[in-house]
Every structure is written in C-alpha cells, then in structure tokens.
User: Fold these one by one.
Assistant:
Number 1:
Amino acid sequence: MSETPKTDKPKKELSKAQMLSKKITEDYMNEAFRAHELGKLIGYTTAISPVEIFVAHDIVPIYPENHAVANLTAKKGIQLCSVTENLGYTSHLCAYARSDLGYRETGITVTKGIPEPDLFLACNAQCFTLTKWFQVLARKGNLPVFVFDTPEYIMDKKAREEIIKYCVLQLKELISFLEEITKKKFDYDRLKEVMKYSAESSILYKRFLDMAQYKPSPISIFDALIGMAIAVYRRGTPECVEYYKTLCDEFQEKADKGIGVLPKDKEKYRLYWENLPVWFKFSDHAKLLGSYGGVILTSLYVHAWSFEFDLNKDPLLTLAENYVSRFSNSTLEDRADMAMDLFKRYSMNGMIMFMNRSCKAVSFAVPTLKDVLVKRTGIPALVFESDMGDQRFYSETQIRTRIEAYFETLDRLQHKV
Amino acid sequence: MWDNLSLKEVVEYTKDPFPSIRKWAKEKGKKVVGSTIADVPEEVIYAFGFLPVTLVGTDKPLKKAPSRLPDNACSLARSNLELVLSYEGDLFDGFVLPQVCDTTQHLSDIWRISFPDKYVECFLAPRQVDRPSARYWVKEEIERLIESMGKWTGIGITDNDLKNAISLYNENKRLLKEIYDIKKKNPETITNREFFSLVKLSMQVDKEEFNKSLKKIKDSLAPKKGDGYLDIVLAGITCDPPEVYGLFDEIKLNIVADTLVTGSRYLDGIVPDNGNPIDALADRHMNRNFFSPIHDNVYRNFEEIKALYKENNAKAVIYIHIEFCESQEYDLPDLKKMIRKEGIPMHVLDTEYQTLSLSHLRTRLQAFFESLKGGSL
C-alpha cells in the first residue's frame, strides 16, 4: 500500500498520478526518517484515526499496517509470522501484527522499514487488534499509548449524540496528551487548515471511487486499493489534494473515452468484495476474475476513507462524527445499508465475501452480512475463507475451484434471465 | 429454590443452572434477562424486577453458532451464542450485552438480529479507563440502560429501587468474600470447585434467595487447614469447564487469590451504598481490577498479579487462557516474560468451552507442580 515491493517485472511507464504518489511517498518517508532531526515526533497510528490532529501538531504519523501490507504483498508473511509465533503469539492473530512483530525481531522488510515510534494513537473504530498490537510495541520502549475509544455507532439517535460527545471529550484529552508530550500548545487554527485539505481530498477520493459507476468501469478494486494509500497516510496535506485531483482527471479521461478495466463487451460481472484483499494474491485474483468477465468494483473497506467533513462545524465535532461512523464501527444493519447503496449506485451483479482469518473486526460480520445482502439483492454470494497475509491459510486449488463454480452459477442465472 | 442449598447442590446447579432458573421464573412469574461478561450493572436489571443471569457458556455441542462465528472466534463467545440459539434462548425475555472487544461488538449485533422479537440492548463499556472521559461515559451508559429498560417495560425505577438492589448485591459479595477468606486460610474446609461454584451461581440466580444459602453455608463451615496444599494465584477472565477446579482440588492446589471476572473481579464490585446510586455504580466500574480488553495501562495486569502473589505468599501463578481470546493472546507472551523475570513460577492452561476431556490439562498441571515441588519448594 505505502511502499511498493520490489519485483523483477519490466518497468511500465508511470502515469502522472503514479509518479506523484511515488514522490509524495518518498518525501513522506524521508521526512519520517528525519523526524527527530526536524524536531518532530513519530506517532504510530491506526489507518482509521483522527490523524488530522497529528498533522496539525507536527507529529509524523506512521502506519505499521501499511508497512505490513508491503511485506505481505511481497509474500514475506510466512517468514515474518513464524518468527512472531516462536515468541509465543498464536497463528490466528492478525497477520499485520504478526508480520510487524517479526520485522521488529529480524529487521526483515522489502522496504526501507519504518522509523521507531515515540507514541501511539489507537482508534478502535477500526479494530481492537490495533490497540492490543500497539500495547505490545509500547511495552518494548515503555512508550505512551492513547486509546481513542469509539463505541459502536448504534442505531439509536440519542445514543449517537452521546457517543459523539464522548468522542469529542476524548479528542480534547488527546490534544492535552500531545501538548504534554511535546510541551507545545496545540494550534486550533492550524487544525482548521488541515481539515480543509482533508475535507477536499476526501471528496476527491470518493469521486475517484465512484468512477466505478461507469460502464465499463475504468476502475477496479485493485486500482482503489493502490489509490487509497495517499488518503490513508497523507490526508490533511495539500499534496494529498493535488494527488486526488490528478488521479480523478486520469480516470475521468478513461471513463470519457469508454476505457474500462475490461472492454465493454467483456465486462459481464460487476462484483462487490467484502473485506480486505488477499494481499499476496492481489494481481492473480484480478487476472483470474477478468478471465471470466468479472471485475471487482468496490468494497466497504476502500470507502472507509471517504470522509464527509463539515467545515462549518467545530473541527473536533466533525472529526468525531466521521471517525465513529466508519463501516468498521457500524452495526451489521448499517453495514448492509452501506453495501446496498454501493450495489445500487455501481449496478453490481455479484459478490465475493471473504472470511479473512486475520481480520476479526471485519470478518465476524461476514456470515450475517452475506445472508442480509443475498436476501436484499437476490444475488448469490461466493464465500471463501483464507488470510489476507499468511499464505499458509490460502488453498489455491480450493479457492480457484470455488471461483470457477461461482461464475458458472452466475452464467446459469444470467441465461435463465 | 435457592435458599437452602448445600455445597453439593450448589456444585450441581452450577453445572447446569438453567432447569432451576426456568422452574423458578415460572413459579414466581418473573422475567429473565441474560448478559454476557463483563461489567453489565446487574443491579439495574434487578431494580426493574427482572432476574439478571450472567451467561458463561455451555458444554453442550455447537450446532448453530459456527455458522455465525467462525472457528477462530473466542470460545466463550461461540459457546454463549450456542447456548441461546440452540438451548436456552426461549427462557430469556431480553438481553443486555456488553461490548468490550471486536468479538463482543459483533456478538451483540448477531444476537440482536437472531432475536428480532426480544429486547436486546448493548452496554457500551469504555475501552479505556485511565482518563476522566471514561468515568463520564460509563455513567452515560448506565443512564442509557435505565432509560432503555424503562421504555421496554413501560415503568421507571427510583433511586430507592436501585439502592435496594445494590444493597442486596453488596450483601451477596460480602458473604462470598467472607467464605473466600475462610477458604484461603483453611483449604480443607471448602474445595476450589465448591467456592467458585458459589460465585458463579451467585451471578445467575436470585440473590435474595441465594444469600440465605450463603449465610447457612458460611455458618456451617468448620475451618480445617489440612496438609500438603500449595497456594496459588489464578489469573485470567473465566475458568471453565468447572471440572478444571476439580483438577486443582485433585492435586491439592489452594486458590488464595484470583483476577477472574467470575471470581474476585466480581466480589470486589461492592458498590458504596450512599449518595447517588448511578454515580456509585460508575465509580465501581472505574475501580474494578484488570480486565484485558478494557484496560489501556499495559503493565497493570502484571502489577496486579505480582502484588497478589506476594501479598498472599503464593507459590505459583496459573493463567487460564480461553481459546481464541484475542485480548489475552496479545497480553500473554509479555506477561509470561515479566512474571518469570520476577522469579514467579507460572503455568498457562488453554481451555475451551466445548472441551469435555481434561486429561491433557491434568497431565500438564501434574508435570508443572511436580517440577515445582522438586525444585525450590
């Protein structure tokens, strides 16, 4: 996601957006590695967290998840996870966490690695795992951890108002926590400026994801997964806005010219994907599905960063409202509604529900969500179990057979119609 | 029904309390509200006139839960879901389910969708406790629960209703603590299994009745020290199936302190019975000891176990790991390292709710304590 793993494939010419992404990432990592020299601290945080507060306070955010993705995509999962398991951690914990703890032990990485943390911010709107993983890392250096506790955004209106109040209260505590560590007063005007960038880039990011509405779709989930990286780690900056403007222009041009991931006559199945991807099978899955006329268009996961910040509101209020209501912190009923909205807007006619052993926060909803979505859409679902990063839990033949059988079912249904 | 039980009967009831709860509820015309662990303020449920029952899994086979929660989900969560989906669901008029981790968050959603005709409310416990906002939030949640139950039942409760419930529940905890004190010093008097059955049954049956049994049992105890007992600290969240306590009894281990939600963490939840009862319940929540999913101080678990070991002059720590409890699994490797660094012998027992055979646990426990006795003791 953040740092592209090395491959032996011949180099393709990069698009303007890709070059920009590369430059932003390099500048970001260079700054991160020089943070202390620049008088800044490194804050490890979760991909879904009110990072705008870090940016406004000159804390360089680092996402161990992104680094884990680079290693897992490059198939380092078994090697790194095994090291962690030898330390006494069980094999069914999150592969991001296991590969990261393995990296801490061995230094093995396909990138330049990530700088060591000074503090942690764990937001449980994403998951509880990150909190526990950060606690493990914090113990290594006796470092401070701030848990931004976001209770489930339950469907009761009054309860939601109370939840927001609790979250705003905590954001104030977070600011005091950072002020105490950095001995520097927090600048609310700076936060307002950061919020402007974050709001603008979020709208553009959503526009980019919504390119999936076109037929044929110029964007697949694989484009979205690559394209979301900057939203994850550079939101709140002008370069993030610039990147998404460029990216939107590129994909809009494709859409205007009718260029799809698959040619219009080959695009038979427009698919929904539930969960994170199987990172080490990223391109294989795209090719395999493409051979059946299938394109995965989207998932709730990639939409997690399409925030709708209201700049007319107090920044802490709009931050709280947005972060607490992510799909990963929403009820099953609300998740189903969010997915249904995507089904309608993107005209999808198939769904792949991935039971990801690594990600309990997303996967434990899958069996029930699948039932609800199948009932509401009338579309059959393909369910398969594996792991997003640990190849030991991936059965090639079994999954391939299931995908083939699923497309046969969809074909049969289409012919009936 | 529960006011004149012998220790033997308590052990039997604890193994499967539901037939007696069913019978009692029918006879008394009372409604039953179930909760999973931990930290639901059961005094509120009682004040509304319901019987609060804490659900702590079943040893009956899994049939429906695996299709909702996969096999890498916490064994207790799956077992509780099975308990209501296949076996006892109809007994309950409603549920109040605490959310303390990803699994319990999902469990609460799955439960609500599985029982569309029943009252299913969640208790959103703060998953941090070291900042003022946590105290604010837990009070909000207690008030929300009162309002929600009020809407459901169409009745309200007064401060006095709540104070009476608190008083009854406090009395229960005081009695249990007194019995625990006798047991700690006189292990021959009451077995581990008997004592922890008293605690567990207290969490599941009517306290007004059961307190009478507790008084009688306490008064009937003739303290006996016995020989050859080894004092231990039991750490973890729950300890099941109850036969595990039987194993401790078999090899003469005496639990002198524990950190269990179905043990001291429950007993220490005595609520100050003066002032505003909601504030008192919120204070109780904040003062409770370590519970892995909600405590953000990463050293607190270690510090509490070490203190219990030293204060009680124990000889070892046994940690009960619930299979697939993610929270425990992130804590354990470092906890083991820290405890062993202090020179404290520690043994981890892996438990699963549907396990019926304990022979592997017995062998491991025996080996650990034989080596311990042959070593420094």
Note: Chain A has one domain: 16-416.
Number 2:
Amino acid sequence: MTSTAPSADPRAATPPTADPVLRVRDLRAHVAGQQVVEHVDLDVAPVGVTALLGRNGVGKTSTIKAVLGLVGRSGTVELDGTDLVDLPTHLVVRRGVGYVPEDREVFAGLTVTENLRLAERRGSEHRYDLVYDLFPELEQRGTQAAGTLSGGQQQMVSLARALLNENRVLLVDEPTKGLAPRLVQEVSRVLARAAQVAPILLVEQNLQVVRDLADHAVVLTDGRSVHHGPAADLLADEELTQRLLGVHADSGPDAAGRRPADEEGPA
Amino acid sequence: MSTVVLLLFTGVGLGAIYFLVASGLSLIYGLMHVLNFAHGVFLSLGAFLGFEVASRLGATTWTGFAASLLVGALAGALFAALTERLLVQRLYERHIEQVLVTVGLGLAAVALFDGIWGTDPRFITGPAWMGRTTSVLGANVPNDRFVAILVAGLVLLGMVLFLRRTRYGMIIRAGVENRAMVTALGIDVRTAFTLVFTIGGIAAGLGGVLASHYFGYVSPLLGQTLLIFAFIVTVIGGLGSLTGAAIASVVVALLQQFANYYLWGTGDLAVVVLLAVVLLTRPSGLMGRRA
C-alpha cells in the first residue's frame, strides 16, 4: 500500500489510493447553519483499522456523522465505488455501514435483547454467535433495561449492535471514552477481532489503543484533513504528534488529559 | 358519599376521553417533535361520521353504536395517516411550518364541518342502556361513562401491547428516546411516523364517538375544544410518555370535576393552576424523561 509522507504543506496531503472500501473526498458538513467540517479527504482500506485523529473539537465526530448523513453534508462519500452522499442515513447504513457512536447511545428504556433485535438488518445475517461469544454478559443480561447497565456494559451493547450485521465498514467513535483501564483493554481486544470481520474507521483519543490497532492514520485540524499515513510512522514522530494532536506520542493511555471515569454505574 | 362516587366515575369517564386524545398527541410529539394542532379534527371527524353511520343503521341499536365506533376509528386513522403523509412529512424537521400547517388544517377542517353539518350541535342518541344509570354505592352513574372507561382501557392495553410486543412498537419506543440513532441502525423511521399518526387517529376517532355520547352532542368545535385539555394532559403527563398521559388524563379530569362541584365551578382554572405547578416543579412532566 502506498501512502504519502507527511507533507510540509498540510493542504497538499492526500490519502492513499488502493481501492479503499470507503472513499471520502472534499467532505463538508454543517450543523444548524454552522460549517463544522470544511474539507476532509480520507480512505478506509479494505482491511485493518484506520484511525481518525486530532485535537478536541476539530470535527472528528462530525466527520463520522457526515459520512452517515446524520448531519447536513456535501462532497463525495463512496462505499465500494458508489456515491452515498445523497442517500438518507438509513439507506447509507443498509449498504453495510456499522456505527458505534460516541457516548454509546443505547436505548435506555429497551432491554439489552431489544437493543440488539432493533439493530437486526434485513438482508443481513445476524451473528448472535459472534456477539455472544465476544460479550457473554449480554446474553445473561438480556432482559435488563440498557439504561441500568454500567458504562462499560453499555459500550458492549453499542459495539454488539454494530457487529451483529454483516458490514462493509465500521465507524467507531471514541469507544474507550470514560472507561477504566481494564475495560479499555477489553474494548481494544474486541475491536481487533472486529477488524478481522470488517475494516474500521476509528476515532480514538487513547494513543495506546491507536498504537495497538491502527494501520493508517488520518489527522484533522480545524475541520480539514491535514495528514495521511501509516499510524506507526505518525506515532513515531514526536514533533508531528505534538504539533497535530497536541500530545506526546509516548504519553500514557490517558493521552487527552482526561481521567477515565469509574466503569461502574450507568453512564 | 354518593356525590363523591358520581364525581369519581364522571371524572374517570372524562379522563378516558382525554386519554384517547392525549395518547396520540403524546406519542406523536415524543417521536416526531410535532405539536399536532389538527388532532382535534380527527376526533370531530370520527364523531360526525360515527353519528351519520349510527343514524342510518339505527342510533338506538347496539349494532349502530358498534358501527359508529368502528367508522369513527377508521375515519380518524385514515385522516391522520393522510395528514402525516401529505402535509407533515413534507415538512420534516421544520417545526414552525409543521405547527402552521396543522393549525391551518384545524381551522380549515372546522370550517368544512360547519359547511357540511352546520354550526349547531347535533344531539346524539345511543342504545337505551347507555342513556340510563347504574347505581354504584348509592350514586346513579350514567352508563356511557362505563363504556368510555372500558374503551379507553382497551385502547391503552392495545397500545401497550403494540409498543411492547411488536417490532414497530420497539422502533417507536426507541425513536422517542433517540430518533437519530434509530436511523443509524438502518431503520426508515418515516414508516413509524405514519404509524403513530394512524394510531393517534384511531384513538381520537374512538374518542370522538365516545365524547359525543358523553356530552350528548357533536359539533364542529368539539374536537378542538377537547384538544386544549388534551395538550395540558400531555404536558402534565410528560411529552412522549403513554403512561404519563394515562395518569394525567385521570388526574386532570378528576380535578376538573371536583373543583367544578366543590369550588364553585372553577374546574378549568384548577387545571391551569395544576399545569403551572407541574411546569414549575417538574418541567418534564410527571413521567417525562428529560428535565
């Protein structure tokens, strides 16, 4: 796979082009009349994990939402070569896009089983074997209301909803946010397994998780993609990580300066 | 004692009618964030068409009454579904325009009913039993109250079973919580929109027929008058909560009845005061999710 070296002029940075599953060009997004994504190019390779990185508030979550059509958008969003930019969200998803939102967004009033059944998509196999193998706890807690689960358990429900169907690509937004270190490792292990099933576009602040999982990295600054390249090269370059991400590449799991919240108790 | 019992049954009977209007309003707002100011029209249409059918089949027969309920429900359902598909859905997420179009539809429909049925109330007769009373603990309770309570109870049961046991019910419950996430699971939530309008229309149509028996007449403004109290019920119960709507319907109607009897006819005022108290102390309503 070819990839451009980090460019001196950020705007000249272009993503690699080796038949990506998801190909995004000149993506712009707006929320309530305000432009939150200015110009994002990114490719998600057919295998592995592509990390979407950047400081807080640069538009990572908005980029993911724009790919899904959850916010107003323009540009090109191609899945397997077909442009989806004019499709409503539910049709984008039915093409095979799995989504694990920031803050989990489980349906609190529905049971764990209902959360999963709601995620069943027509025309797809429903891989309860895989899901219950990864998260045996969800089978035991099937009749419990999802709102009464701990943050870590809710993240399992959210991941399980995305892994239940056959997807072409998974969009996973800060899956370790607010989780205790033990659970961060657990989520990381699950994502590694999920990446064997479908490629992942991963927003993640925890650079250790990025280091463990990501093959490629895309960095956003002020709503623009400014860097594309192998994740390992980016994280090895201390000056570049400091400049683009505002953190030291060798800093610990809590790279963004947040304290992991206690994993017990509903989020 | 007998007065209290009579007020209780009359209040719960009125609460049953409020619930039939408020349940649909609450579900529609909960899922779609649409304040449906045309909802009373579904009720009036159900009442008028029910009245027409009953008078043709024999207003004093049970067949005529059953047919009027059926026709009322169907008319409400059809009109509600068309309203959603032709007007509300085209204004997706444009809330001001949705309010304007439903207000406009409400006014236009009342004018249309004026044209067809006239502005004077049409007096309703039903099966003889419904015009009589049953003695409960010394109080002579009009039988139509029992029918209203029974039908509203069945509608509540049906709605709960639908919401709990079916996939569409699950979609509606999830959509009330977080509509964007429902679409992000690949579900076309617009089908659920049409469905909640239809369900709301069925309940309102049934409510129209029952209200016309409860009050003894039907007029073009019947629905829109009840709509005001139904909105209050919905806000007090918590927008989007069916259980909240059921509880608040009974609370509001009982308060209204008791205040009218014991506090010199101040029932409507008491309801508004209750609304203010709830809004000040629990802005999300009795069973509302978010504060």
Note: Residues 2-222 of chain B form one domain.
Number 3:
Amino acid sequence: MKLRTLTLGLLSASALAFAAHAESITIATVNNGDMVRMQKLTDDFTSKNPDIQLNWVTLEENVLRERVTTDIATKGGQYDVMTIGTYEVPIWAKQSWLLPLDKLGDDYDAKDIIPAIAGGLSVDGKLYAAPFYGESSFVMYRKDLMEKAGLTMPDAPTWDFIKQAAEKMTDRANGVNGVCLRGKAGWGENMAFLTAMSNSFGARWFDENWKPQFDQPEWKNTLQFYVDLMKAAGPEGASSNGFNENLALFQQGKCGMWIDATVAASFVSDPKASTVADKVGYALAPDNGLGKRGNWLWAWSLAIPAGTQKADAAQKFVSWATSKGYAELVASKEGWANAPPGTRTSLYANPEYQKAAPFAKMTLDSINAADPTHPTVKPVPYVGVQFVAIPEFQGLGTTVGQLFSAALAGQSSVDDALKQAQDAATAAMTEGGYIQ
Amino acid sequence: MARAVTTQHKTIATAAAWIVALLIFFPILYTIITSFKSEQEAIQGFALIPSGTIESYSEVQAQSGYFKFFLNSVLLSVGSTILALLVAIPAAWSMAFSPTKRTKDILMWMLSTKMMPAVAVLFPIYLIFRDSGLLDSRAGLMVMLMLINLPIVVWMLYTYFREIPGEILEAARMDGASLWNEIVYVLTPMAVPGIASTMLLNIILAWNEAFWTIRLTTTEAAPLTAFISSFSSPQGLFWAKLSAASTLAIAPILIMGWFSQKQLVRGLTFGAVK
C-alpha cells in the first residue's frame, strides 16, 4: 500500500514536472521565402501549444541534405522535424528512417492533399512527410513579345511551337533571348529540367532491368533539341545559369520564355522585383505528342526522423505547419497570394486565392499532369519525375549534369556527352548491384 | 645613379606590393560592396559603386539573432586557443629542448594529420560526439577545434622555442629553477611574441573553421559560420543578404587583425629572418 502510494505520488509529481517543463523541438529547414515566413508566424503555434518551444536551424540546401543525412543515418537525434524533398522521402521511408505521420489530428484532412504530391510522399499507402509547399514546372512567357512575333501561345504548347516562338522572339541586339533554360550542372539544376524534358521525348534513365538508356534515340533527340534550341535562342553563358540566374534574366526582361518551377510565378509577377510583372503569361510545359509533358513535381515537406525523442510534439508542429489553417493564417497576415502553393486541393478551389494568384489554375494543372510512379512513356523501375529515387542518383545525376552542361557550352558534342553518360551510369549501376 | 635605381626599385616594389595586396583583399572588398546593394543590383553584374542601401543588413538582422552566433564564435575561438596553448607549450618545449631521435618524425606525423580530408572522419567523430552527448555543445566543439589546430600550434611554438638559446635555460636550471619555474619565468616571457602570434593566428583559424562548426552544431553552439550558411537560398535572390551576413561575420576578426597586425607579422617572420 505504502509502496503504491509512493509510486503514484512520484509518477504524478514527475508528470507535473514534465507538464511545467516546456519541450523544445528542433526544426531543420532551408532558406526560402515560404520557410522564412513560417518562422515569423510561429507565435501562432506557440500560443496554441505553450508547452512546446521551437528552435530553428536554417541551412543551405546541400549542407542541409548532408547534415540531415548524417544525423538520421547515425540516429543522432539532433533534429525533431526536418525539411526534405520528394527525392528523399521514398528512399528514407524504406530505410525506416522516418516515422509515419499517423497522428496529425482529426481536423487535418489528409485527403485534401493534392494526390500527385501525396503519392510522392507515401510508401505502401502511409504518409511519411507532409508537404509544406509543392511545385511543378511550366512555361512563363512575355505576352508582349509573343504578340510582336505574331504568335499566340496555346495553353498546352508543343516543343516545336516553343522552338519556333523562341527563334522569332530572339532579338540579341536588344538583349532579348527567345528562351532561358537551366544549364548549370547539378542533379537538382539542369538535370531536373532535362530529365523532365526527356520524359516528353519518351526517354527514360533506366529500362525495367535498370539498364541505362542514354544510348537510345530518345535521349539523343532530347539533348540535341535542347542544345540546338539554346544555341539559336538562349542567353550567353547559359551553361552556368540555374534557377536564380534565369529568374534575374527574366525579371530584367531578357527572356521571351522561361520554363521552370511554378513557384517562380510569384517572383516574376511581383512588380517590386520584376520589370515585366504585368506582361507575363503562363502555359503548360511543352510536349511532343507522346502523352507526357516536360514538367516536374517537387514538394518541400516536413518529416520526423525515427531517432527523435519528441515525436508527439513534432507531429503537432507538422500538423500545424501544413494545415488548411496555416494557409488561412498567412492569408490574413500577408494576403492570399503568399499562401504556400501546391499542397492542398482546397486552396485552389478558394475564389479569393484564384483572384490573388492568376497562375493558380495553371499551377494545379501542371502538378496534376505529373505522375511520379509513371513519369515517362515507357515503363520504368523507379519513382520520380525529374529524378530517380535511389541513393546513387545524387552523385550520378550530378556527373551526367556536368557532361550535359559541357555539351551545352560546346566543350563536347552531344554524342560524346551521351556516350560518357551511358558509361558513367553503367558503372554506377554495376557498382550499386542493380545490374551485373 | 645608383640612388636613382634604388628609388625606382622601391617604387616598383611598392606598386607590386599594393597590387598583390589589392588582389588578395578584393574578394572581401567586393563582398562588402555587394552587401550595400539591393538583391537586383547584386545579380546584375560587376559594379563597384553600390546604391548604398542597408536593406540587406536589416533583413539579416530581422531573420536571425546575430549576437548569439557571435558570442559562440568568440567563446569557441578563444576557448579552443587557450586549450591548444595549454597542451602545445609543454609539447613544443620538450621537443625543442630535449629532442630525441624521433622528434622530427613526430612533428611530421602531427602535421600529416592536417593533410587528411575532414569529411573522411565525419562519421566516426559524429558517433563519438553522439555517444558522449557532445553534439551541439560548446565544450565538445572547443576540444574539436583545439585538436584540429594543434599541429599548427605545436609547429609554430616549436619554431619559436628553437630560436631561444638552450644555455639560458641551462643557466636557470643551474640556479635551481624547477621545471615549472623554468617554463613560466624564463621560457614564456622570452617567447611572448611567438606565443602571441600563434594565439592570434589560431583564433583566426578557429573563427573561420566551417566544416566541423556547421556539422557538429544545431542551435545552442552554432557560431557565425552557421549564421552565414543560413542565408544561401535555393529559390530567390540572396547574394546581397549573404554578403551582408558574411561582412557581419568577418568584421570582428578583421578589426582584430587590423589592430594586431604588427604582432602577427613579427610573429610570423620571427623564426624565418635568422
């Protein structure tokens, strides 16, 4: 009896002590507009959850990936919530590195998450990361230059139309390039664009038996078309242009068209940053009549590492940050145009959001047009539209990106670049045990 | 005539020195210039005259607290330097004044550890830190910084100590000085310039160390290197903000270097001129 009283007393005392002691969770994130905005709005979360304190660690994207991988692989437990992309989620979930998100609350409405995005973040039907913002890619173009060229951009253009328009819009004497595309080497830079583009040409990284496919005509068509297009209508030094460089060029009125992330729409249409804000039109990413478009799918998402000691508090935070309520909170403070895009169907049904974001419908259509499990025309053994969700891809993607960037710069021929890419991919796949 | 040539040589030498100095300093100067540009200006290409806006500084200040990172940088660089000196002075003393056949080999071996890429030992070190609960702790990082800079500190001190005639120490010993007294009252005062410059250099090295300070910290112990790296953005323009953050991070060490440049130069050339 005495022992039981004592135990009960101790237990309740420790429960009280636990309640009084605020739990702090550490969130690792990247530095982009939406994430910075979320850090400013956390008072809303802490006022609703006074027992949870938030610590933020903001890192450069590649450093974040390395830090988070080190921590998660060693079960270091430094982070309770981490920001990762659609590339990592399937790989890490299969390794049991992430906790399934099954306690997001009754009012979370997980069914509202855009199906294409939810599919990319789930393994065996379980959600392993909650999308914070999602994006696809589409064509942004200058309506005035298109008119001057005597052309009308269809809602769903073909690559041939893009080529024709780019050549007509190019006016290098006045600093106008018909089209700006990524050329900077990197698996998340030029290879994101080129892999997505290759899908619309019917190319694939690997066949069903993991045999690399760079020796096939589809890849040759893709890369030759890209290099020719950029030679005829691209900016100077395109092989060092990534997202940020092209954004600056477009904002300064130096690009007729730019095919890149849908999230760029809010930057190019912002009159404070863009000299062409009122002249931008949007269209779906181009196709070649093969049934697939050249657009990608990406979502920065919040996941909880298996090593955390504070899973419940972490789930509460993830639920708050990716809820419908969060979008409403952003809208009330900073307007609907700033609500994190690309994650929830309900946002796109909201008339106020449609009014504030003229690119809303095109963004949703683009996201819906991407299918991570069937990215290209022929069947593939991997998941991912603009990447291949295997651990080897970061290294291999960057190697191939360097080869293709060199082809764009004219340092090697298209055929040489493809041959070397085939060799590099074969070596990586053999080493990884995918092929003999 | 000879005089004229000398003056001419002097002018050429001075001009050359200025050019080299400007070349070396230019990246820092351009970072400072860029930090006073708007994001749009920063990406527009080469321009030496900024518009003079301080919006990047106010954004950097609003986004994360500079002072906490600064304090960590000071604690880590000074703390690790003091630790390193405590270990290195006796080590350098023994190697300089009672060398054995293997002293040179030991010195070379110590230096060879600096040739290993840091990332090669990331996992073992990370696991050791995890298991001893040292991740994101200032104490752990101080020890780490001390260890990686130790070879250089020992080498520098060894070179300075070698310049001090062993006879003076012998004389002290003959007068009955204990080992402790010998190091504290005879050796250290004579080696002050050397120790001071080693200390300054080590503080700079520890301040700039960006591999371990980013990888072994999260929030509590994160110094200015982590502060800078948080301003690089995957989407959106960030050059001006990154430059402002870098300028804020290097300013203290730049000022310290400016004030102590005499000691630094004297210390660095101390062993070489003889």
Note: The longest helix of chain B spans residues 2-35.
